Amino acid sequence: xxxxxxAIFEEYNKAKQYKEALGEKGLYEQGKINERFxxxxxxxxxxxxxxxxxxxxxIIKRIGDCKIAQTLSHNYGVSFFAQGxxxxxxxxLSYKSIKEKVKSSGFGFKEKLSDQEVLAVTEALSQLYKTxxxxxxxxxxxxxxxxxxxxxxxxxxxxxxxxxxDAGIDLDGEKVKGDIRCEVLKIGDVYxxxxxxxxxxxxxxxxxxxxxxxDELLRQAxxxxxxxxxxxxxxxxxxxxxxxxxxxxxxxxxxxxxxCVKVTNGGILxxxxxxxxxxxxxxxxxxGENETCAxxxxxxxxxxxxxxxxxxxxxxxxxxxxxxxxxxMLINGDTVSGDISNDPGxxxxxxxxxxxxASAVKFVCPPDYSEGLNNAANNLIENTLTQSGTGPVMxxxxxxxxxxxxxxxxxxxxxxxxxxxxxxxxxxxxTALIWADFWxxxxxxxxxxxxxxxxxxxxxxxxxxxxxxxxxxxxTISEIEEFSAQEKISALGTLYDKxxxxxxxYLSRLPDALIDSKAELLTASKEEENETx
Length: 533
Known about the structure:
Shape: extended
Low-confidence stretches: 88-93
Structural class: alpha+beta
Distance between the termini: 74 Å
Number of strands: 14
């Protein structure tokens, strides 16, 4: 067992050495530098003193924030389908028949899997994706992941199963424990078995590094019966112990299976076990692609020289203006007896002749400042923003004659970002397939909440029954709506007045917070419409 732990640490050290050799500074040191420049600590180590202002014009943060905001300014919808089976788009089959069956006869199916049931399963998984996204707070995880990718080259979303989560009620009416959680990992804590392989699922193994307290690890070791491994485990200066989690795949006749083992430098913390998954539970987003490196590249690394030049030129300009507006004063101490405060209107007593008065106080005029340096700084800022794909139009600094012209300019300016959005779309797709892998292999039997045009109902999900389905995902991108609630209500009112939509269709599309007891009104309007028919 000790030999296995030693072998994993050797793999970890080998991957660590590879990271340390990346680029001029290595992945770890370059990441620290990039973080400082992004956050604004851009004069670190320059030894310029504190006597004069050191100006920062942070284009690095502006570029990153703009690209992150533009990438997340769309809705990324996910729908699941079973390969080789009918879908909503190419079949008249509907999951409504399954819904009616559930409502009339209760949960559970005994007959052979039908096309209608498969369609209902995929619809349930599509709804489950929305529910899970809200539960794990995916909207908050995404900006953190993209920020990590912008600074360090790649961001990693780690999905794991937490057995302590209250997950509702199963098909037999019993409480269900366990559901997935997500965590954004730093790329510095993720080690790929083949650093030149950019396809994560093709990696021979992946090692995750984390530092945990001895007490936390002791609780895990007591459950696993491996307390002795912590006796000789090394503790760092913060009282933490390095834990390595190795994920690897075993290829069997039944399919691929992901195995896991946890070790410390004292030995095995948790012996190898089967996760029941077929995919590595890691989805990666790279801000900059590198076909020969799984860790990606950070754009900041190549923006730093421009940032330094901009800061120096603007600082020189500020120093020159300060020197011209508040020039240095020379005082003849033989003729000026009082203290000099340089306050406006101060009276200075000078004793001596007129010549002494004329030479008592003088100002040192700084050399003329070249306006060309100002122009050079502004040109460098503009060119850097443009070359990075975040010109004045995208940043909202460009002026146009009318709204149509602005739209055309923005559309043209956003074209280069389609590549970045495409990579984020791939990241969403990978995440969706990983979540489906968890649902089909670790959910067992439970009720899945579905909300559609007819309200809320619960699908009887039996993971074992559907485990043989080849589930695929489709990701769609749509613009986030820019219309206000008042504009939507006005448009709905127009459609209703013209008879295009019914009363129930009008009510169902109104914001929930707008009307009290909306559900009761909606039910009454549907009953009224049914009676009319």
